[in-house]
Records
---
Amino acid sequence: MLTKFTSSYLKSVAASVFGRKNIRIKKKLHGASVTRVPAAPTAIPLHKIVMKLPKLFPRSVDASVKDYKDFCHRRDQFQEELLKTLPFYPYCAESKKAEILKTTVDCQGNYINEFCITPVKPSVSFEKMKHLIFIHGYGAGLGFFLKNLESIPLLDNNWVIHAIDLPGYGFSSRPRFPFKYPRDSLLQVHGWFHDRIHTWFKKRGLLVNSENNLVMAHSLGAYLMALYTSKYSAHFKKLVMCSPAGVCKSTTAKNIGNVTPPWWYTKLWDLNISPFCLVRNAATLGSMITSGWSYRRFNKLLRSNSNTNLDRLQFEALHRYAYAIFNQRGSGEYLLSFALSCGGDPRLPLEETIFKDKTSGVFRSNCEWAWIYGERDWMDVNGGKRVSRFLQHEGGVKSQVQIAPNSGHHLYFDNHEFFNKFIVKQMQDM
């Protein structure tokens, strides 16, 4: 999910204290395209804050209190009720079956949470199966891929789909994050994630025939997996970089005139003070605060032409799922301040580190690459294009760049129909 969430969420909350001017959008006004850019927050009277609260946080207090009580009683139900909106879980259907798995990945007993979809009647043995692995971004979880898991087929019944929660995210274990910025090094933090991801790959039997692995990683997850390839160069056949973070030092947001964040905002960023802290400390109002983001993020389900009972059910389940993962103990999310500086620029851009000439001993990846960005993405597609050209001409590997229309940073959800077709094409090319 990454820093677009952090920025928009903090601004939503800040609006209840300071108010804000318009974010950058383009509107047709008397035939002309008018661009509005962000401006500094301005104070607004308290009575106006109170009047705006229902619009800022649309979840009712009663519903928020119920969500909190449910969370305290059994938090796993939030993941269960979301995944149960899929036709093949918990009971097999459409020649598919699915299960939730927890794979231990360290000596402390911490585990990676996984939703695994397999064919009811596989056409080949497990060793010969092909594997599509979904990896989410900052602050997210495997449940955000709901519309992709719902529709992507298990081609010829010889594919398995794995959607995982990164270490310290979602419904994976939430151990105390052992690093603090800037005391510890970024390389130590990378190693903490990569060691556990590697253990998961090994324990799940995905390294026996690693040429059958296709990884799709979003945002900060894509950043982690790109670095993973420089350490383990032959663990998968292809890596799909979905709106990746950390590629280069320019983001679309900065290119359109964002002002430099104030010093206190930067300080909070480096201390990993995030909107999730608000949710965790709000007790019974945490779900209501979450709705300031989730109701806008998943509103497409309610705006669809069909607007079926299933759409409404999934909208509600996605909100509750988002609340549940935001409200859990902070852990893997603390990668953010190590990987990115305030505003979204990477501290060590991939373009300047791992994507270098092989003779320098840096570029070691053997996999194929695909890059996909939303048409209105805030990540800089030009960075992806530059790296893609490098991969082709200097790295000697296949790479392509695709733009998903009518979508932003969360293109896998915004235009899941286009995105799913793109992923199926990558599967067919395997």
---
Amino acid sequence: MAAPIAKGWCWAWRHRGFILKRKPRCFCFRLEFLSTVSGGSGLLSSLNKRGIIKDAFPDSAAQVELPRLLESAPQTVYCGFDPTADSLHVGNLLAIIGLLHFRNAGHNAIAVIGGATAQIGDPSGKTTEREKLPSDVVEDNTRGIRESLQRIFTNHELYYSGSEHGLGTFTVLNNASWYRGWDVVSFLSDVGRHFRMGTLLSRHSVQSRLNSPEGMSLTEFSYQLFQAYDFHHLNQNHDCRIQLGGTDQLGNLMSGHEYIHKVTGQEVYGLTTPLVTSTTGDKLGKTGGNAVWLNQDRTSPFELYQYFLRQPDSAVEKYLKLFTFIPLAEVDQVIDLQRQDPGKRPAQKRLAAEVTKLVHGKEGLESAKRCTRALFHSSLQALQQMSDSELQVLFREAPFSELLLEPGTTVLEACRRVQAVPDGARGYRMVTEGGVWINHSRADNPDQVLIPGQHILANGLTLLRVGKKNFYIVRWLNL
């Protein structure tokens, strides 16, 4: 007869035999967590009502300990971001917003950029091992992510804070700074001895990779040790007792909790945010190839604005709660307006405006609206206010030319100089047949001399369109 199994463990089938596997402690109280927290009035209750918190652990966290801790004094919460690209993306935004809510409630927020862990590679949610990044690329990526985080936190403080508790502190750290003094022997001797293989192997991220055709390298397998030590380092040096991460980070969060509890005896807590997916159910991020970036040199304010403006009615209420700081009562009012006149898309417009202002500030939002009016509403005023860079973003594939304006230059000559129409009779016919537009107005007289204010905007630009999709941008140099 098999021996009895200790509480908290279960038998699991693995290849040709059984292994002992620890039950994840957080899942068993998911429903209790939601019902307990949603009835309260504190920070966790607010985050739960907005859908920002998905799970918490250990078992007693939601019922008693964590709410009591958050109400007792300002706490420190952290979230990690590996610099595997030079910008964060919309898939990271919900974790950032979680940190902002904690800071707005008077708690201290730490964003850890994984300068060390990026070179190891997190296997969570990955089907293959991440390609090793050169150290100089990691440094460049770290700078880009630091700038993105600081910009978003500054915008939140400027436009959305208004907290009666007073804002907590915000700190950006790089975990490479605390691994420089470690060698591999010391790390394994001091840290590795506190981890058990059965527990590490039971993690979902590890199991899915071990059972895949490619398998899993020792480097990737060790990632959870490093993330656990990150939590321990922050706990000891910054009195951090709460870690925030996406649901795909659950195993890593649990490793940190167990390591700290073993080494210090202190209770720490983990909170997860739901993963943001596309309309097809795919995780938004670099791996899926569908990333919407938070740095404007990757995704412009206009493109970010349009991404949220295009969200379907079925998702917009959820996204208003997740990605904005609009009070829930006001979200209900916006959704009521949406139901009354869905064609005007008031909910999508509010969502797009709020997210763009948080990520890119008021200037970024105004740029996005200007580009939207110029492209979709044929606004001549918006077109005149646009900068060269906005035009090039808006008409990304359009050739950009700088020309000297010669006296008497005609519509046909301007088109030919930028090679928008061919030489000869065919180009002439393209104009007379109405195939050419200048600054959103049809220009069907090839011999018409260009008129400032009509064909040449006050900012010295001309937008040519031939056919439906072929744009050309001209800057006149000698006005």
---
Amino acid sequence: MVSIQGGIGLLLLYNNQGGMISLGVKSKTGDLVKCEVIDGGELKSRRHLNVHSKSATLHSITDKDWEDIKFGVDNEVDFYVVSFVKDAEVVHELKDYLKSKKMYSAGCNANVRVIVKIESVDSIVNLPSILSASDGAMVARGDLGAKLPIEEVPLLQEDIIRRCQKLQKPVIVATNMLESMIDHPTPTRAEVFDIAIAVRQGADVVMLSGETDHGNFPLKAVKVMHTVALRIESSSQVNLNSVSLSRHLAYKSHMGEIFAFHAATIANTVATPIIVFTRT
């Protein structure tokens, strides 16, 4: 349940497969909210509701989620992605559970990494502690844009990527990257630029959602994203500049990482591969 304060004028956003339906709250009682349609559309099943600038008061991990988590451990999954993370406590709770499974269940693979989805108002407020507790993050731009002013989303994306780089943790950029390819065989040029910007900013993963979930051209969408990402990564400018100053400074006290960083920079500049022999 989401607590709706104030009533009049609060905007409700209903995420719909083809866009968003916007509703303005006119009045409310204990179990009824009356709204005026601002931006209409077809209301489909299994969509979810966002209240602008508010976070849900639900638990991040439900009883059903715990059942799924146990199933994942027993079947040796590699990652859990936790939605609507409000604070670092939910990450610690999940990690403590995974450690207990590893300790008391012989043969279980509990070396599972926890990725947090940054998609709510609370997750932005508590961003430093959440990222510190996690093993990586996803910039869930769809929900961020529904809960916060859309002009803030590009700035938040860049900030989250920079923070993850500084912590040397992987970061995923997701949602609406090739949205037009749900219905069309070619992307818009703006979408191509969107992928390029995420790669240049230093994202480790760019992710498709509806394009491969229910789109008409899933394989083409994957090929486009793959091709664009490889082309942008291959440019020397990206190789030299995608690692931010903050990440570079994180290497300062680690001599081995300093050598590795500069060796990689030289190899990228002259387009020469590196072969490394290891003992393990």
---
Amino acid sequence: MAELLRAAGFLDLSTAVSFLTAALALYFLVEQLFYHRKKGPLPGPPLVVPFFGSIVQMIRDPTRFWFVKAAEARESGLGLSADFLSGRFVLFIRDLELSHQVFANVRPDAFHVLGHPFGKKLWGVHNLIYKFGEEHKELRLRIAPNFTPRALSTYAALQQRVILAHIRRWLDHSVVAGAGATSLRVPCRDMNLETSQTVFLGPYLTDKARESFGEEYNLFNTGIMAMPVDLPGSAFRRARLAVERLSHTLAECARESKARMRAGRKPECLVDYWMQEIVRDVDEAAAAGQPSPANTDDKDLGNFLFDFLFAAQDASTSSLCWAVSTLESHPNVLARVRAEVAEVWSPESGELMTAEKIQEMQYTQAVAREVALWHVQESEALFLEAFF
């Protein structure tokens, strides 16, 4: 009978199943030991799902997931908690000073900033936040021309035109809709998306491209909260392809800006100030018979611009919503801000507020810094992968 079963393959199948079960059990045990060795006394799940870890909980209810991670880190007394996501041991840091110390040690053999558990697949391994050492330092120096007083004054004028147009539309809508509260989260997001596009790209982005940007960003924002299944039709694949299309469009904007700056045109937006310096460096290298400096290729610049635009949209929207909510809860502070603004500028004047006028509003600036600091302390955290 045994010979007949062996001939039919039943015993071989049974042996294979037993071997596979033992291998999976060993893998599960090794993974648990690996996780607990790194976790030590830190708060975090006592057991982790093989390979996936807590990724399902994060995607199913991201708000609750991050709330729990923040609470664990805060209550630990150490300012951090541990978890396991997609085969990676990760740390969630909730302490501002500890975050600064970690940033000083971001390197290949210590910490990698994740940004998102699947960020490298979405943004690419050459993304700005994944660079180390001299390469990261060189890129930061190359970006510096975007933040000179002259450049910042240009951005202020561009931002005001967009912001005033949106506020007028909000007021018109409130008149039509009648009395009652209106949610500003989506309008603020739309305003900040247009503001960042205008500040970064100015005349290089057509109306059609701007509309397409909104659609692509929606695909991206949906994809980063989906399971990392990179298959045709999946939300993750649509997000990844959206990033590729956006980066290609932005690379074209960088190419056009280079041409305008090489022709001696006046900078009108952030990318112009950036390309003005890059064109000079590229031309000097070419005249000396040397290759173009690093981080000056159109494709790379398109990727960097996407990083800036994504960060500008998310950070500006959340900061503005926090500021509105905080000021609404402190009417005395809001009254002083309004009074100070009224001293230097009036919307009926038909003029834009200059950089000099903005500098005069010291109380308003202090309030803005305080809101930003409070928001960072209450809400922001550092999410990174530990390699030690």
